[in-house]
Each structure stands twice: as structure tokens, then as C-alpha cells.
Amino acid sequence: MSTFIQTLIVGLRLGSIYALVALGYTMVYGIIRLINFAHGDFIMVGGYAMIFTVPLVLGLGLPAWAAVLAAIAVCALVGMGTELIAYRPVRKKGTNMTALITAIAMSLFLENLAQAIPAIGPNPKVSSQIFASGGVDLGGVTLEYTTILTIVIGALVCAALYLFTQRTRLGRAMRCVSEDKEAATILGINVNHTILSTFAIGSGLAAVAALMYMAQYPKIYSTMGVLLGLKAFIAAVLGGIGILPGAMLGGIVIGLVESFTTSYVSSSMADTFVFLILIVVLMAKPAGILGKNVGEKV
Q1: pLDDT, tens only, 155-183
Q2: Residue 61 region, left (φ>0) first, then alpha (ψ -120 to 50), else beta?
Q3: More exposed terminus of the chain, fewer Cβ within 10 Å: N or C?
Q4: Considering only 7-16, 28-37, 66-75, 230-239, which range has the smallest mean pLDDT?
Q5: Confidence of residue 298 (pLDDT cuts 50, 70, 90)
Q6: Where on the phi/psi map is residue 128: left (φ > 0), alpha (ψ -120 to 50), or beta?
Q7: pLDDT of residue 296
Q8: Comparing C-alpha atoms, which of 44, 29, 30 is closest to residue 113?
């Protein structure tokens, strides 16, 4: 039983990270129907931003995790720059396939740019400890502080984002643009500003995901966002891409599947089971767990 509970906790920890990254994917897809494959690399950007700002934060007498504020700002700027320079011109003149290729190109560009910067380079960098070490022993199950914070932060951010999209003016504008851009324009909504804000928020979430990831795996490298981003994308599709609660649910499911497969089957089979679950769910429900099949008039 203690092994089962420990595996469950690890799965929730992983799922919280995947859910945060998946939220970035699903926000962008929900509003402009674009799969932003560069989103995983925003996590790498946030990780390096924290590594370089942690010494400054500590010098000011603040805790190391406060560096995430600078990382959020950097990721938001990178996300907005990506939308303005790469995606907006394609959105206006290109096709869906052109946008997809542009997203892949931006991912490769960010990875190679990081390797070309002398202060970063191709070799991994070890980050300093962000949260206090130690944990709580509950009936033979060790619950680390980093695990508790990861799960709590993930849940709070997911809930806050959902409330933001439901209760705020900008959040309602995002949902309106997602439903019908032309109608949103008629209603006086600045579509380009709304899309830019969506990229800023989604990219900022990548910095929070980087904080949680670094708390568990204190190693940063230029391609760290590739596999993490892919699994988060799978989580978004599994839950129903374009649906915020679906991204949360998909992230938790992927984290639990990976954790239980590693503990009870084999660590080498974890990714196999993740893709297998995706295939099985999409065969039964192509729109994802919370998604709805919508017919189109022709």
C-alpha cells in the first residue's frame, strides 16, 4: 500500500507539471487553432532565465524561487515576440500547414539559438536548489516538500487560469475570439491584442512549469523542452485540446500512467504506455476525454 501511495503521489507531481505545459498548448490552439510546437522550448527559456537570475535574487536577500517572476517576464516577452514575428504574418497570409511548419521551425530556432549563446552552450547546467529540502513522513510514505509545492502550485495555477477565463473581461474576450473571430471583431474586441495576450499568459505558464520541473530535476539543457512538450501536447489532446479542464485532466492522467508504469512494469515502457493510452482513448473518443465532436456545415 505504501508503494501504491508513493507512486500515486509521484504521478500527481508529474501530472501537475504536464498539466501546466498542456494549458499553454490548449490556450493557443483554442484561440487560433495553431499547435505551438515551440511552447516546450519556452520552458527551456524560463529555466535558463531562472538560473541566471537566482544569484541576483539571493543577493537581494530573497528566496531562490522569486527568480520565477523574472522568468515569467522573459518567457512572456519571448512568446509575444514569437507571435508577432513568426506566427502573425503566417496567420494573415499562410495556411494551416504553413503555420505548423513555422511552429516547428521556431522550436528548432530557439534550441539552436540557446546552444549558440556562449553563456548557455550545448552542455547541461545544474540549477541551485529552489525549495527547501526534506519532507513529511506519513505512515511510511515520504512526502517531500517539493512534491507538495508542485502539486499545490499546479492546482492553484490551473484553478486561477480557469477563473480568469470565466470571470475577467480579457478572459471572456479570449473565449469570444476562440468561438468566432469575425463576430468578436464586430463586437469591438481587438483580436490581435487578445491573441498576443494569450501568448503572453501561455508562455508565462511555461516559466512556472520550468520552476516546478527544476525543483524535481535540477538540470537544464537546450533540448529539455522537446520530450516534456511532446508529453504535455499528448495530455492536451487526451483531455480535449482547446479545453482548459481537459488539459488539466490530461496532464494528471499522463503523469499517473507514467508513474504506475515505471513502478509496476518497467521504466523503459513508460513512454510506450503513454502513447498507447492516447491511441485507445482517441479511438473511443476522437475529440478527447472532455472534447465534443462538432459538426461543420458545408
Answers
A1: 898 889 889 988 899 989 988 888 888 88
A2: left
A3: C
A4: 28-37
A5: very low
A6: beta
A7: 47
A8: 44
- Beta carbons of 80 and 249 less than 8 angstroms apart: no
Rounded to whole angstroms, the Cα distance separating 155 from 163 reads 12
154 touches 22 (CB < 8 A): no
The C-alpha R_g of the chain, in whole angstroms, comes to 19
pLDDT digits (tens, 9 = 90+) for 216-259: 888 888 888 888 888 888 888 888 888 888 888 999 999 999 99
- Which residue in the block uniquely carries the three cell numbers 504553413? 98
Residues facing residue 220 across a β-bridge: 125
Q: Grid coordinates in use for 94? A: 499562410
pLDDT single digits (tens) 80-127: 999 999 888 887 776 778 888 888 899 999 999 999 988 888 888 887
Placement of cell 552552450 in the chain: 121
Contact criterion met (CB below 8 Å) for 244 and 20: no
Provide the terminal-to-terminal Cα distance of the chain, rounded to the nearest Å: 55
Query: Would you state the cell numbers that stand for residue 173, as one nine-digit string?
Result: 474576450
Compute CA distances 218 → 107, 124, 215, 224, 242, whole Å: 22, 10, 6, 11, 31
Nearest to 225, CA basis, from 34, 36, 82, 3 = 36
